[in-house]
Design brief:
Helix 4 crosses helix 5. With 292 residues, the protein is of the alpha/beta class. The chain has seven helices and eight strands, in the order H-E-E-E-H-E-H-H-E-H-E-E-H-E-H.
Length: 292
């Protein structure tokens, strides 16, 4: 398994920036011994760590990847799993950049720590729990504002995508921000957890609660055998969309036989066929909705 970082292809000025703020490696708690993670090269890209305005005036670190050529391009906010900004998320950003997008991954957990190098799930959950719904929405607003000010971004073309924890954020952001034109949610929770369960936060809404409020169409990519997101909750979301008249034409795809995390190529749950199909659908969804 090759775990060297692709930033080695960057010139020295970029190399010194692009690995400075974030964990270099894959999420320690979920790295599979048999994994062969995708390694997307950074040549012909600009890859760097930046800071964007977060909720409450916080200076929020973010990983940025974009094509090196001139011109303003559509931008994608990439929302991480519970493991933060590790090599998988950075690689996803580079994949979007190679597809012609500006990709930005804000570090929503930075205030509390970095879950990526941890192996104790209790410690990881404690960090994740500090990122409240309103903080995350505020951080996303800051990321959108920062992107809109960049000369290399077409501020009329914003999309968002997220994985696991970030999948739920994707639905919620699509219901909050009119600037977002399209979202793709990879196996994100759709309904509230049980009281006291992981992710429970008093009074916060979940995707099933905001089906009528979506301001952008969301493509949901889910797994048949997801132990944390039963198919019954997927059907609840479909019913909520239908009851609201599905105002933006959102869709949900369920991959037969796949498990939670099927796109995460560093995990044992990786499903290459489902991941490839989901990625193709993601890019097509963005293009069909005017991003890219």
């Amino acid at each position: 398994m090759r775990l060297d970082t692709p930033e080695g292809n960057l010139p020295p000025s970029r190399r010194s920036i692009a690995g400075a703020l974030f964990f270099s490696g894959y999420a320690a708690a979920s790295l599979s011994a048999c994994a062969s993670p995708v390694q997307t090269p950074a040549d012909e890209l600009i890859v760097e760590d930046v800071h964007v305005p977060g909720a409450g005036g916080y200076s929020l670190p973010a990983y940025l990847a974009r094509p090196s050529g001139q011109g303003a391009r559509g931008a994608v906010i990439v929302v991480n799993e519970i493991f933060g900004i590790h090599d998988y998320i950075k690689d996803v950003c580079r994949r979007f950049a190679r597809a012609g997008y500006v990709a930005l991954a804000p570090d929503y957990f930075d205030r509390a720590g970095d879950p990526a190098p941890l192996t104790d799930f209790a410690e990881i959950r404690a960090i994740v729990a500090t990122a409240t719904h309103e903080q995350v929405m505020g951080d996303t607003a800051g990321a959108l504002d920062w992107l809109a000010r960049q000369r290399f971004v077409n501020s009329t073309q914003f999309a968002i995508t997220g994985f696991c924890w970030g999948g739920a954020v994707t639905w919620m952001a699509a219901a909050r921000f009119a600037q977002i034109k399209a979202g793709v949610a990879w196996y994100g929770r759709l309904t509230p957890p049980a009281a006291g369960g992981f992710g429970a936060e008093a009074g916060r809404p979940w995707p099933v609660n905001v089906a009528a409020d979506l301001k952008a169409p969301v493509l949901g990519l889910y797994a048949e055998n997801d132990s944390g997101i039963p198919l019954s909750t997927v059907e609840e979301m479909r019913a909520a969309l239908a009851a609201a008249g599905n105002p933006k034409g959102s869709e949900i795809v369920v991959y037969p036989g796949a498990q939670h995390g099927f796109h995460a190529d560093y995990r044992a749950s990786y499903d290459a066929a489902a991941a490839a199909d989901g990625w193709a659908r993601c890019l097509a969804w963005f293009r069909a909705n005017g991003v890219g």
